[in-house]
Amino acid sequence: MIKVKNLKLPVNYTANDIKLALTKSLKLKEESIESFRLSRLSIDARKKDNVFYNATITAKLRVNEDRILSKFQNTEKYTPYRYSFTPTKSLKERPVVIGSGPAGLFAALSLARFGEKPIVIERGKDVDKRTEDVELFFKYAMLSTTSNIQFGEGGAGTFSDGKLNTGTNDSRAIQVLRTFVEFGAQEEILINAKPHIGTDVLKNVIKNIRKEIISLGGEFWFEATVTDLEVKNHELKSITVLKGNNKEVIDTNCAVLAIGHSARDTFEMLLNKGIILQQKPFSMGVRIEHKASEINKSQYGSFAPKLPTADYKLNIKDSTGRGVYTFCMCPGGYVVNASSEEGMLCTNGMSYSKRDGDNSNSAILVSIYPQDFDSISPLAGVELQREIERKAFELGGKDYCAPVETVGSFLNESNNKITSVKPTINPGYTLAKIESIFPEYINKGLKDGLSGFARKLKAFSAEEAVLTAAETRSSSPVRIVRDESLQALNIKGLYPCGEGAGYAGGIVSAAVDGIKCAEMILTK
Q1: Spatial distance between the Cα atoms of 182 and 180, rounded to a whole number of angstroms
Q2: Fewer Cβ within 10 Å of end Cβ, the chain: N or C?
């Protein structure tokens, strides 16, 4: 079989269009093609009067394939991907996985499939009960600090766009996508260049993964928080778990620390235990909402009605050289209240699988570096996050309503009035001047960013677009330092993992890191 790249398909393509493009590209007759399938698909919208799909096709030919491979530069031999790992040791004690986000779930699934029986510790609730708590918060502003957008089964990614594109080149990323499909995700995530699941589908996928882990002998402890580690001679001996009002000690010499970027109390516990933590770069800013139809028009022109809801990815340097970029863009999605601590407020974005909401949103983030802090504490970034979240809570009215401002008001001091773009955040919003929340360098980055993005994407010039503050949890401000064996630098048997530990930046990269940690645990 061969792979044929860069085939041009119309936006309303059919199977016949695929075969025609294939025969034209390879200069073959139709009868020379035994079979074919779509392997990769992306939208090319660089020219708004000529938008098309760029496709990669896998084909089996009835002619000499080696001759075709030597003749056409857009072809290559097709080699099916197969995930392969063979453990070289077994564990004497049951492994513990702390956290059930993508990193934790994939670490636990890998361990279970390789014959171990992991215990998964999750401070939040299972995804169904968690969803109930989130809906109560959205409706009545009743915040649970352990069961919310940040904490609970599936991690912060559960209530997101379920975006699966990643910058990692690790081949395990393909295995992650295939695993999602195995447990109920749409098969098109294996084809689309920018795959996404959607929070509605992702919830069922997560439950199915949990059921598989349990069927293989694993356990899940929900509403349970790790409060202490016992370490002797730089080796992990046990962990202490608070479950309700009871403390339980699990004897183990192997724990995956997949705590996510919002487990601030766990960061503090680890620091107090002498585990080496570092400041790391991260970003903060706001969520911007436009009408989805305006983004579609800006991206696709007259082709918009024939294509899926449009996305975008933008970045510039502000006038001081600081990076400003869009992140976690949610086509046809919603801005969600992602608060997890009392008296603090932060945001995130979420989409359902159909991406059919009236608005599209994205984070606009300004890069923050360790040199921006006055403190050398590894948790200085956490404290800056908290400071901004407190100010956002207070500016919104101290009732978990989010502070909101139009782009026109933020940039040009025009009237701060909601018109065509209706904020989607719950339990509500308060019109306010959000500039008071942020340090000057973030405000400058946001203003330069909005102006620069408007030159790249027409929809960003709309003054009625809405900014919601504050987006503070895009990534972890902390790195838990680990060595080449993926163990904490000064504690054998503890494996910092995923986004919260500072080694991933999204669902797929976190899941890949979970698999890598599981493999390392099982390697002699």
Answers
A1: 5
A2: C
Q: Phi and psi of 251, rounded to 5°?
A: -75, 120
Nearest residue to 96 via CA among 239, 204, 198 = 239
CA 344 from centroid of its chain's CA atoms: 22
Is residue 161 domain-shared with residue 291, that is, in the same domain? no
Q: Which two tokens stand for residue 524?
A: 């002699």
Tell me: do 273 and 296 sit in the same domain.
no
Examine residue 86 and state whether it is found in any structural domain, yes or no: no
> In Å, what is the CA distance from 22 to each residue of 59, 72, 192?
9, 12, 19
Specify the pTM. Answer: 0.96
Listed residues 445, 471, 497: the one ending a domain: 471
- 329 and 399 both lie in a single domain: yes
What's the distance, CA 370 to chain centroid? 23
Q: Are 206 and 128 in contact (CB under 8 A)?
A: no
Total count of domains within the chain: 3
Q: Is residue 37 part of a domain?
A: yes
Secondary structure class of 384 (helix, strand, coil): helix
Looking at the structure, do residues 492 and 455 belong to the same domain, yes or no?
no
**257 and 337 together in one domain:** no
Residue 118 lies in a domain: yes
Q: What percent of the chain has pLDDT over 90?
A: 98
The number of residues in the chain equals: 524
Are 381 and 429 in contact by the 8 Å Cβ rule? The answer is: no
* d(C-alpha 135, C-alpha 123), whole Å: 18
Q: Residue 272 is part of which domain span?
A: 96-278+476-521
* Structure tokens that stand for 107 in this block: 């670490």
How many Å apart are CA 296 and CA 103, to the nearest integer? 33
Q: What is the pLDDT of residue 167?
A: 82
Share in percent of the chain as helix, strand, coil (round to 5): 35, 25, 40
The three-class DSSP label of residue 325 is strand
Query: Same domain for 116 and 168?
Result: yes
Q: Is residue 82 part of a domain?
A: no
Q: Are residues 404 and 301 in the same domain?
A: yes
pLDDT at 142: 97
CATH number for the domain including 241?
Answer: 3.50.50.60
Whether the Cβ atoms of residue 36 and residue 60 lie closer than 8 Å to each other: yes
Query: Looking at residue 275, what is its pLDDT?
Result: 96
Is 252 in the same domain as 162? Answer: yes
Among 459, 460, 458, residue whose Cα is nearest residue 450: 460
DSSP secondary-structure letter at 310?
Answer: P
User: Residue 387 has what pLDDT?
Assistant: 98
Q: Which segments in the chain show pLDDT lower than 50? A: none
pLDDT in tens, 140-186: 999 999 999 999 999 999 999 999 988 888 999 999 999 999 999 99
